[in-house]
Design a protein that fits this description.
The chain is an alpha+beta fold. The protein contains 5 helices and 17 strands. Strands 6, 7, 8, 9, 10, 11, 14, 15, 16 and 17 form a 10-stranded mixed β-sheet that branches.
């Protein structure tokens, strides 16, 4: 038995640091299951598959705003650094794909956009793929408490902050349901925590009890703010038809 990052380093002829970074990003699968810990002990004959990060695409660009189609496995803050003079107006989890909005610093439009987010006037529509059959629309109204350290983790707790999530089944195949998800608030990991709370954790969300998958099956499909509407096409892996 050997540590996963050392085996990956040997088999793919990369440095230990590179191997650790790939595993930490969630890009490595071992014998068909995604690795979450670089120091996991594995047998010498383990077969690794390393995913590539999809290109970052621009959905809309003007002086004040840039709307991006964020690929999974990229941190929002990493993306911000690529666009000098712009700042994040909201964030997506590293493994969540879809619409991400940046604003030009000191542009007079940006305070208005920020205020719209603050006042919950920005409309956010997501898609999530879960195990199990969700037959009806559900409103999840459950407070969320977040513990932050080296990494954040949230849970439903009476002492948490108000959080409301609306879900509606879009399509069902076998024992999987594609959900349309609308959030009124924007708590850390809100959709992930709420779906796990009602017994339907998102596929690929090992942090909150979801079954193993190549990625977290959560996609930010549409964002409406002020008079703007930005859309990101649903990735092929979400389609159940």
């Amino acid at each position: 038995m050997e540590k996963a990052y050392k085996l990956l380093s040997q088999k793919h002829y990369i440095s230990h640091n590179k191997a650790k970074a790939l595993i930490d990003r969630g890009l490595v699968s071992a014998n068909g299951k995604r690795l979450t810990l670089a120091r996991t002990l594995l047998s010498e004959n383990t077969h690794f598959v390393v995913q590539e990060i999809a290109p970052l695409q621009i959905l809309h660009q003007e002086e004040a705003l840039i709307a991006l189609d964020k690929p999974t496995f990229l941190e929002s803050y990493e993306i911000e650094k690529r666009f000098a003079g712009y700042q994040l107006l909201h964030r997506l989890d590293k493994e969540t794909s879809g619409v991400l909005l940046l604003g030009r610093r000191e542009n007079p439009l940006i305070p208005k956009v920020k205020e719209a987010f603050k006042q919950r006037k920005a409309q956010k529509l997501y898609y999530a793929l879960v195990n199990g059959i969700v037959a009806d629309e559900i409103c999840i109204d459950a407070p969320i408490l977040t513990k932050k350290g080296a990494s954040a983790k949230s849970k439903v707790h009476k002492n948490g902050l108000s959080a409301i999530t609306h879900i509606k089944p879009e399509s069902i195949r076998g024992k999987q349901t594609l959900l349309e998800v609308r959030i009124e608030s924007g708590r850390t990991h809100q959709i992930r925590v709420h779906l796990a709370h009602i017994g339907y954790p998102i596929l690929g969300d090992t942090l909150y009890g979801g079954a193993s998958a190549k990625r977290l099956m959560l996609h930010a499909h549409k964002l409406k703010v002020l008079d703007y509407v930005f859309c990101s096409k649903l990735p092929q892996e979400f389609c159940l038809n």
